[in-house]
Structures are given as structure tokens and as C-alpha cells.
Amino acid sequence: MVHFVGAGPGGPDLITLRGAELLRRAGCVIYAGSLVNPALLGLTGENVPIYNSAHMTLEQVMAVTEEAHGQGKEIVRLHTGDPCLYGAVREQMDWLDRVGIPWDVTPGVSSFCGAAAALGAEYTLPGVSQSVIITRMAGRTPVPEKESIAALAAHGATMVIFLSAGMLAGLSAELLKGAYTPDTPAALVYKATWPEERVARCTVGTLAETGAREGISKTALVLVGDFLAHDYSRSCLYHPGFSTEYRQGDGSQKPESR
Length: 258
Prior knowledge:
By secondary structure, the protein is α/β, with parallel strands linked by helices. The protein has 2 domains: 2-106, Tetrapyrrole methylase, N-terminal domain (Cobalt-precorrin-4 Transmethylase, domain 1), CATH 3.40.1010.10; 111-228, 2-Layer Sandwich (Methyltransferase, Cobalt-precorrin-4 Transmethylase, Domain 2). Helix content is 24%, strand content 19%. The chain is built from 7 helices and 10 strands. The chain has helices at residues 17-25, 58-70, 90-99, 111-119, 149-153, 168-175, 207-214; strands spanning 2-6, 28-31, 50-52, 75-79, 103-106, 132-136, 158-162, 185-190, 198-203, 220-224. The chain has a 5-stranded parallel beta sheet with strand order 3-2-4-1-5, sandwiched between helices. A 5-stranded mixed beta sheet has the order 6-7-10-8-9, sandwiched between helices. Strand 6 (132-136), helix 5 and strand 7 form a beta-alpha-beta unit. It is globular and about 65 Å long. 36% of the residues are buried.
């Protein structure tokens, strides 16, 4: 069996209980390089072979996997955050299906959750934004034209942008082609939940200069949107005038803005 395990955003205590137990039981571990906190590898047993996939091709990863499976070992493929986001897992799952090796997935806490925690922010604020767009800039890896930053920015929703901290000037220019202005709040969150975590609040217009000033050019998320400002509407859910199947409202007025 191959277990795809989300390592979480960086803090070693943010891996799930299931993920930690799978690491303890593993007979072979293949982890996704420097974005996995090495402290997690300490959960493995003695003499368990551990491979850094940053130095490997897909073919090499699967060769190790097939060999370990042939030896009757449980294999943990340890991915950063949650495997479903920018994890390149589908091609591995399809390969395993072709060769008849069973697999499962243990989800993890994504860095976009860790970034919100670092900022003390809520992505979905009433009256501000009820949608979160998770995307990336086109670089050496292209993105579909309909999913360009400019196209997605037209919505004016909350945006969390991965793998783009090295292209902040271009990112800012593309965001400004959409619904954002130079004064739209933004933030850079470097290595969310790691001991070296850093947060730099800025605006869409000052993204590039903020990144240069703070020395942030990789391993960081870019967050954009008015959810980072101060104005929002109070939630209906906990307002005394709002009825639910569990509680009858008292008829008071609609929630006021904050």
C-alpha cells in the first residue's frame, strides 16, 4: 500500500494524527524536499529508507515505490500541505493503478490555511467576499488562458496565489487588470507556521517593493483582497434576529456592518 500523506504547512505538530501514525508504521518514505519539515522524518522508525523526491524524476520515485512494494513494505509519499494542491499526485496515482499497487490519501492542512492563521484573517467575510480563488502565476509551468491572473482578478474575490513570490512585479500588474486597485490590501506570508514565519502586509500596488524590502522571493503565499481590510458585515448566523433550525430569532433588525 502507498499512502499519500499531507505533511501540513510546516509546523511539525500540524500533521494529522493519521499522517503521523502512518509515518511511524512506514517501511519506506519518499518526501517532497525542503518544503517538508525535517522534524517529521524523525517520526519514522530506525533504518527506514527515506528518499528526497526533489532530486528524483517521477520514474525514479515510482521505481523506488515499486521496489518497496515488492518487498512488502508500507510506503508513505509525504507531500507538503495537502496533496491535492500543486502536489503532482494524479500522475503518481495513475501510475500505481497501471501497475496494480493500491493507494490511499490522508489529507493535510494546506499552507493557505496556515497563512490565514498567521494573519488572523477570515477569507470569507460577509459583505466582502464569499469566494476564495487559489491559483498561481504562469511561469515555466503554464496555466490555461481562461485562468490567467487577470481573468480571475476580474471577480474581485479573495485570492491566494501560490508559487509566485518570485514574480511580484508581474503579478501586481496582472492583478491591476482585474477588479483590484493599487490600494487593495495584500499580504506576503513567508513559510506559514514554520518557526521562521514572516508576515508582510502591503497593497497590490506595493507587492514588488515589499517583497524586495523583506527579502521574500520564494516559499511564500500572496494574499489579495478586501478581507484584509476592516469593513465587513456581521454574520447572520449568530445574530439574535436570525432564525435557524436550532434557534428562533427575536425579530430584531438585520445585522449591522462593522
